[in-house]
């Protein structure tokens, strides 16, 4: 999923990576990609995870994992970082998700009854980034659909998701709802439709695998 999400990122873009699967994306970007990775705790120019001899405990991503900084990268305080997000200077936000609704609503920060640290920067990113990509498994641990007609979990932001990448395929969020863009290798259209709790448009493009 991280490798597939990396293919959606364009040279010259500023991209924020959320906690979870999105943090793996730097490992699939070539050194000359021209993509600047942003972390809301105050880092622009984030590189892949460090080798043991490269670890600097002060260089971390939003998930408190140690990362590297590419040549030309910079660090700054969180106030400036969020000003970048709210000012529309982040081109793409790649976020994890618990649910995505057919109208683009996103729920990715809280499960009722479970202890959580807070919404963090997810709300700002979901509304401030020019494009939002949700990366998640297609179903939850109990087999329940995460692509739904309406979110039942607390919302992070409304009508913000543009694209969803799951372990089963790539789904666009359009005015008419979900459209299957691409199947994962070995996955059938029927399996994706069965795992989706909302109407799913399948055209000829959606019948092709990656």
From TrEMBL:
Keywords of the record: Transferase
Keyword Transferase: yes
Gene Ontology terms for molecular function: CoA-transferase activity
SMART domains: CoA_trans
Domain of life: Bacteria
Pfam families (alphabetical): CoA_trans
Signal peptide range in chain numbering: none
Alphabetized InterPro entries for the sequence: 3-oxoacid_CoA-transf_B, CoA_trans_fam_I, CoA_transf_AS, NagB/RpiA_transferase-like
Family: Belongs to the 3-oxoacid CoA-transferase subunit B family.
PANTHER family to which the protein is assigned, alphabetical: KETOACID-COENZYME A TRANSFERASE, SUCCINYL-COA:3-KETOACID COENZYME A TRANSFERASE SUBUNIT B-RELATED
Record protein name field: 3-oxoacid CoA-transferase subunit B
Taxonomy of the source species: Bacteria, Pseudomonadati, Myxococcota, Polyangia, Nannocystales
């Amino acid at each position: 999923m991280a490798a597939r999400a990396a293919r959606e990122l364009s040279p010259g873009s500023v991209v924020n990576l959320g906690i979870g699967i999105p943090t793996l994306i730097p490992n699939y970007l070539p050194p000359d990609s021209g993509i600047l990775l942003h972390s809301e705790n105050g880092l622009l120019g984030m590189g892949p995870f460090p080798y043991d001899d490269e670890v600097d405990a002060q260089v971390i991503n939003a998930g408190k994992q140690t990362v590297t900084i590419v040549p030309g990268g910079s660090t700054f305080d969180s106030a400036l970082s969020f000003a970048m997000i709210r000012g529309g200077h982040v081109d793409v936000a790649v976020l994890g998700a618990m649910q995505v609704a057919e109208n683009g609503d996103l729920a990715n920060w809280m499960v009722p009854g479970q202890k959580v640290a807070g919404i963090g920067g997810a709300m700002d990113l979901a509304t401030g980034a020019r494009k939002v990509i949700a990366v998640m498994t297609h179903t939850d641990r109990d087999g329940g659909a995460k692509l739904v007609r309406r979110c039942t979990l607390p919302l992070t932001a409304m009508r913000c998701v543009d694209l969803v990448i799951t372990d089963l395929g790539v789904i666009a969020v359009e005015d008419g709802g979900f459209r299957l863009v691409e199947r994962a290798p070995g996955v059938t259209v029927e399996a994706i439709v069965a795992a989706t709790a909302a109407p799913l448009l399948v055209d000829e493009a959606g019948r092709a695998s990656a």
